[in-house]
Fold these 3 entries.
Entry 1:
Amino acid sequence: MDLKDIKQIVELMDEHGLSQFKLEQDDTKLELQKGGDLDIEAIRSLIASQAPVAGPAPAQLAAPFAGPGADASGVAPDGGLPAGVVEIPSPMVGTFYSAPAPDADSFVSVGARVQADTIVCIVEAMKVMNQISADVSGEIVEVLVENGTAVQYGEPLFRVKTA
Amino acid sequence: MFKNILVANRGEIALRVIRAAKELGVRTTAIYSEADVDSMHVHLADDAICIGPGPSSESYLRMETILSAAEIANVDAIHPGYGFLSENPRFAELCESCRVKFIGPSSEVIAMMGDKNQARATAVKYGVPVTPGSEGIVETEKEALEVASQIGFPVMVKASAGGGGRGMRPAFNQAAFVSAFHAARAEAEACFGTPDVYIEKLVENPHHVEFQVAADAHGGVVQLGERDCSMQRRNQKIIEETPSPLLTDDLRARMAEASESLVRNIGYENCGTIEYLVDDDGNFYFMEMNTRIQVEHPITEEVRGCDLIKEQIRIAAGKRLSEHVLESEPRGHSIECRINAEDPYNNFAPSPGRIDLFYAPGGRGVRVDTHVYSGYTVPPHYDSMIAKLIVTGANREIAIARMIRSLNEFVIRGIKTTIPFQASILKHNAFRSGDYNIGWVEKFLADQPPPPELPEFELEDGL
């Protein structure tokens, strides 16, 4: 058995969706294992599909939450940001407001240049309007949250091109 | 009944509360730190909100953050679990002012029973025995000697401004007392800035026996029996059992009566636990009251046939105590082992890390309360308890055999756990005869070589 054979076995495993392979032949023993991590997402979606959600529908919530699978750590679900682009995460739990007052202009919009101390939005928590600063300098390339929606700790609010 | 409960906790108790709420048809909102993103409680709740980074001080202990999460999730109640903010009167008060029901007693009652001195005074007021002690500060040697002789030796001289086990001196007889008195005063002055001391009876070889109580908002009060929690290592409980092998029927009845009447007298609401010290002569002394659900509540549930978390939610929602709870009689014997992610062969050093294989024991009378699973990584930021193994049997011998069997079957591979340590205690004659007290574990550790490791339970692939 050489590397070419092993590569072929791995490709066959991929093709047929196998995760484990064991072979004992003469004095060769080969064991291949894919992944091995129990998929907590699989458990969750299996349980969710087995039983409906208890209580009233989510319509009463201000906005559905991103959920742990998506943005808790501030990394986009597709796994990465373009080079030179960073996200501004929410430092607190509350309601996102893009402007200082309901009828005022937004603090920033796409294309705006920001410095570390530029106020980019308000997150209101317990009736306290917290001004959030950018903490990076660059240009706003995307506003990720709608005005008036609920945000959790670490949820990405803006994308900024720093380069 | 509530529409949506926010669970202000993590780990196994958060999962416990979510399960109870689901059975009541109530929606659940979990909160979690970044370190807990993969915890089972986050995945089983209906909604989950990230509230901060790993360290508890920046997440689970942040009152305003938690209330902010409660606000945006539009919940109508918060269950605080145990630890964290569960006995914080300020947090309960904040919930009250935000019109979110705190599942527990009122902030006033929490404050009253949380202050050790005030709780002790309250116990005295309502005729619950407390450790005999001086009435306040003792100034002179002459006065101190009088008080000590009155209380009866051995006594403890304690700094009034003390804490952390400092500024305390035991004295076993009159001859040793005088030097103990002066030494305690000197240490008190040095550590806390004032030499003020008071005197308390030293309970020798004490047993920790606590009573579960519950009360609703309609005058319904019930005591649900005792739990013996004397198996402790460094003041941390590791094994609990009910009924207590120590109590006679008479002592149990007296303690039950004292517990129930204290709850009635202070107008307590929801579930709580009254902790006592019991000496070898059958005297019991009020120690403190915990105004929350306890870690070891499952053994009471198994023996009484009740769900205490559901009762907590129901009481908070204004319902009366369930009939089956009010009328329950104890049946059988239940033991709990707290499984910690610690290395018992390395001075119980914490052992966080990835569990690559988790297999829980099962069968008749075996219950495992845990938030971990195969592939889960135990984070380093929190309490090391990762599972509770609760077994129940018709009598104590059966329960012990069942616990040993279950511990032997329990596989948690990838980290160190206290499983072999608890197995060796369960097999020890002292435990089997019920002859142990709060000091027993330390003595056991000092006297014995490390117990042999149990053989690894080899499982077939694909299990």
Entry 2:
Amino acid sequence: MSGEAFSDADSAGVFMSIEQFEYSSIPADAEALRSEVRAFLQQELADFPAIKRADSWIGFDAEFSRKLGKRGWVGMALPKEYGGSEASAFARYVVIEELLAAGAPVSAHWFSDRQSGPLLLKFGTEKQKQFHLPAICRGEQYFCIGMSEPNSGSDLASIKSRAVRQGDKWIVNGQKVWTTNAHLSHYMIALVRTSEGEKRQQGLSQVIIDLKSPGVTIRPIKDLTGGAHFNEVFFDNVELDNDAIIGTEGDGWSQVTAELALERSGPERFLSSMTLLNSLIAMVGAHPDTLQAKEIGRLTAKLITLRNMSLSVTQQLSEGKSPVWAASCVKAFGATFEQEIPELAQALCDVSPASVGSNEHAQVLAYLMQMAPSFSLRGGTREILRGIIARGLGAQ
Amino acid sequence: MRDIFDSTIERFFLDTVDTEQVLLAEKEGWHTALWTSLDELGFALAMSPEEKGGAGATWSDLCGVARLTGSFSLPLPLCESIFANWLLGQGGLDPLSGPLTVAAKSDLKSTSGAVSGVLKDVPWGRFAGHIVAVMPEENLQRLVVFSSEQIKSLEPSDNIAGEARDTLTFEDATPFLTAVLPVQLPANIVQLGGAMLRSAQIAGALHKAMTISHEYAAERVQFGRPIGSFQAIQHQLAQMAEHVAASVIAAEAAFARSADELDLLAISAAKICTSEAAGVGASIAHAVHGAIGFTHEHQLHLLTRRLWSWRSEFGSETYWAKQLGEAVCKKGASEFWPAVTAGYFDTFQTETSQ
């Protein structure tokens, strides 16, 4: 789901403590971007209905991603030589939180922007960087993330997909599952086994797979809403060039772990139900009853606080740290918040969720009610995150 | 300044404020010797200007101090004294030596200079040398300072942590000091500042409760292994950690954003989040500790009885959430996110409490 690691990519040596949650605010130069992004979105999404906005970051629109690319808002933290604009982590934060709050369809470039780009920049060869990063920044090249397999969900280190060296090629066999956007992406960054190590976490590598390659089969999996965002992907003797490995062969586990702080701390971890929260406020109107006022006030306080937690992790990331533990707190707490919104929306107003008919609020409620279970599954389940958080306390 | 404050006060608390001393203070109501030695450190004057003997600190320098008073269950009005002296400074008055306290719930009225009225839920009311309150007058807020001798009658009350929360009545009293407060200060300034301080104290107490719960889970062996190795326990501790992290950042944000003037939105967010966390955290800490944590002998109740008390003080979760929610609804859906990112709802007006 979301093609993200569900995994227990473990946090050995991860820096952790409650004290790392220091208050950080967005610097003025980054904040200055906000009005420009808002004006752009107001124009671009003028006729974009709430039910589409409710898709949040699984909404796919390649044309929209290319427009963002033209504005320099994809891969914006990447170096200029690779097509980025060397923007600060906070400038990127302003852009992505505005996109998410508006319910813009960002999923085409989302994974490339959030993690594949930074991963390639950090571990990629010069050739890989030259080939992929400029196209990512243009909003034209989309990556999906191949982690989970049929028998490897939370227990990611047990994956069976394998790349075997044959002459100057790698031959990949195996299967990935729950891969968001595989059917719409150009490349997959897959975690595969390339050798056996003493520990299961050794001998894993990240490889770039061109999804047009012979031997790749992609089958959509319908989710419970009837939508098809994720897929199963089969590899049958798929040939990769020798340079398909990202970073160091056999070091895939530590590379994946390093990505976790990026993928678990962003505003997408608490803004998934934003369209419904807006819709709830509109439905309640200017004169809430006591119960409505209290719960909407409480949700607002949580939103403000989650945003401060997330900004605090952003500050740490911008200092080159890898705050996986703090990011796990953001994601676990954020998912609870995202899931609480449909519960409260249904409880606070006499509007039944409706898949068809009724009104827009009823449809947004129906959709997010059904999507909500995935919020604490994708990107690491609540249970896995809580394991990481608890073990982090142990190192204090 | 913050680092020196934090390390100084932590060292002092480590040396002087242990379970025995807190229990003694609770039993006697007041711990004179502890106040005397704490007062010597001069923290009550932290926010007063240097020429008045203070350190010229801002609120952002003091979040750590407030958190530490919570984590050590300090049974004394240090936060109240700092805040009272800050209010005096806002009124252009010189700081007073403590112990001082503040009253958020006030119906004071003045008749030709003589002030009468009732102050409710006054922290440490019967032990404070001076009591600071705010009295609305036509178009202005007047700061009123009484000395303890001026109390006409006192109805004692304790919160469940044995901390005095008294009702004080004044009758035709000529205040010890008065001053006009700057117009930009909201009418509920005492409630607001008190909520900010309690949010940090709750964050501190929760952090400590989490630390000792984790330590206990690592030591206590059942079924041949530490109970902390069971997922059922781990997940509870993790859930608590999420709330502690949220509480700490919410309190820090409230103090940081109140450097110039007390930030209504940040403070209400902090009091709402920490008050909710207080209930969740206290419950988990007791679940993890089992029966031993339910004994008088164990230190856990020093923290949890304060959590259960402080979440009500200076406005409960519901008190603040209801007002914030009304402001959000009045602002409307299309302006909701812009107001969140601006950190300001112009529809969020302060109300006085009584």
Entry 3:
Amino acid sequence: MQVPILKQRDYLIASIQAALTDADLLQLRDALVTRVGTFRSRGVIVDVTALDVMDSFAVRTLGDLAHMIRLRGAETVIVGIQPEVAFAMVQLGLTLTGVSTALDLEEGLAFLDKRMKATSGTR
Amino acid sequence: MKSHEIRVQIGSDSDIVTARQKGREMASQLGFTITDLTLIATAISELARNIVLYAQQGEILLSIAEEGARRGIGVIARDAGPGIPDVERALQEGFSTSRSFGMGLSGVRRLVDEFKIVSELGSGTTVSVKKWK
């Protein structure tokens, strides 16, 4: 199940629609890391609203994704982590250290806009 | 064999998804809350992942657990892999041998109510967990 990646202004939006296998997650990570260059994107939003489970592999892969994208000069924000998923992640001891998160797509876009404005003077 | 037992063969990453979806379905029929459903599905995901990582192949058995008036779900993750040399250590916080993905077994233990593990070097590992409603 491939995740569609939409380009909107300077951002890429990956909207996960259904449960993903490990291979799907790795493919999403690689596609985003590549396309940030193709489209010269400055921000990436990964919408995980549809994920009913974020296990250790998913959390690790999303964290790696965000760090790789940062190395490519763009910012990532993970949006839509469901309350029960957040609960399970904390119980399991999983954290997304150093990764930005927002409540939903709208908040994610607002976060990136603010971030871009703040850094536009230095870029 | 009890009725309402579901067996999921585990051999690849897509089986991990199947196992946790079947577990979630069964738990949902038992009337667990959505938070518990997520904890159960996440625990199954981790157990199935351990099978794929360490033993390549195995199975997940899902069953309805009953004890007096209590009902719940039982999950058994079984493989005939290399076994765990030091179970105590494998249960320690954050311990994982494959550089992986793991909060591993200690994480799973926090998600469930009962946790049992039997592992023998060379003949495999069986992890049995239960979550009560």
